[in-house]
Write a structure and sequence with these properties.
The chain is an alpha/beta fold. About 40% of the residues lie in helices and about 15% in strands. The protein folds into 2 domains: about 200 residues, TIM Barrel; about 60 residues, Orthogonal Bundle (DNA polymerase, domain 1), CATH 1.10.150.650. It is built from 10 helices and 7 strands.
Length: about 280
């Protein structure tokens, strides 16, 4: 049986619904051999379970770093196997998490101005202590208030990137995120870059500029990529000899993504491991 490697998952330390330990148990049930916990701008979940992982499963330190281009386009950068004590990277993620609070208050304000009965307190009620706040928490609050029936409806009607209610993150540029991850000894892989169903996407030309900035790889195997988008990305991979990853982008309840639905090939994982210099197991 080939290795089952899922390099994109979330816990309730960001916008997932499972605790890190619940996620670990579900990974075991799904017979996944290796998984990365890639909470948004946080390694708190990894810290909670790194010493609890059973034999036969490998937990990969990771994070999904929030980024924003100079023209306010949201980009997510997956970082793997970086040094968890690297001050520059951790400080940057902490700053982004703080900025998300102000951003959420502004989004809620816009919704209130449109007559939608939602408050910041409603959103905080959906956020685990210390978790990175995000739009999925707002979506969950809207479900609880009866404004929408599920997360997908909340994003389709109110929270997508082209919505009048949307406010971009105050976060590093993708180029800065790549630099921070790599200076921390990690490997930088852009998450679902051509997932057009999510809203505005970056251009092929801009993606090539990120390759020039040191991007190591592309998450191609993701449910939000069409077959045509995957073909475009594979063309870039072949041209620039990039790494290829896959992941479920699992968030738990209220999101249809299933653990292990998209995977990373063992040969690609081995290349990631060889390239990384940041994380030493047991540190």
């Amino acid at each position: 049986m080939s290795a089952r490697i899922d390099l994109h998952t979330h816990s309730n330390e960001s916008d997932g619904t499972d605790t890190p330990l619940e996620l670990l148990n579900k990974v075991a049930e799904a017979e996944i051999d290796r998984f990365a916990l890639t909470d948004h701008d946080s390694i708190a979940g990894w810290q909670q379970i790194k010493d609890l992982v059973p034999s036969g499963i490998e937990l990969v330190i990771g994070a999904e770093v929030s980024c924003q281009t100079v023209d306010a386009l949201s980009v997510h950068m997956l970082g793997f196997l970086f040094d968890p004590e690297n001050k520059a990277l951790i400080d940057s993620m902490n700053e982004t998490r703080g900025n998300r609070i102000t951003r959420m208050e502004r989004i809620v304000g816009r919704l209130q101005e449109a007559g939608i009965n939602i408050s910041v307190e409603d959103v905080y009620a959906e956020v685990s202590e210390g978790a990175t706040i995000g739009r999925p928490h707002l979506a969950d609050a809207m479900i609880r208030k009866g404004i929408v029936s599920e997360r997908g409806e909340a994003f389709e009607r109110f929270l997508h990137n082209r919505s009048k209610f949307y406010i971009p993150d105050a976060s590093p540029t993708p180029e800065e995120a790549i630099r921070l991850i790599k200076e921390a000894g990690g490997v930088a892989v852009i998450a679902h870059p051509f997932a057009s169903l999510r809203g505005r996407i970056i251009s092929s030309e801009y993606l090539e500029s990120l390759i020039d900035a040191g991007l190591d790889g592309i998450e191609i195997f993701h449910r939000d990529h069409s077959e045509g988008e995957r073909d475009q990305l594979f063309a870039l991979v072949r041209r620039y000899a990039l790494l290829v990853t896959g992941g479920s982008d699992y968030h738990g309840k209220r999101k249809v993504n299933r653990l292990g639905e998209n995977l990373t090939e063992l040969s690609q994982w081995e290349k990631i491991s060889e390239r990384a210099t940041g994380y030493t197991k047991g540190a």
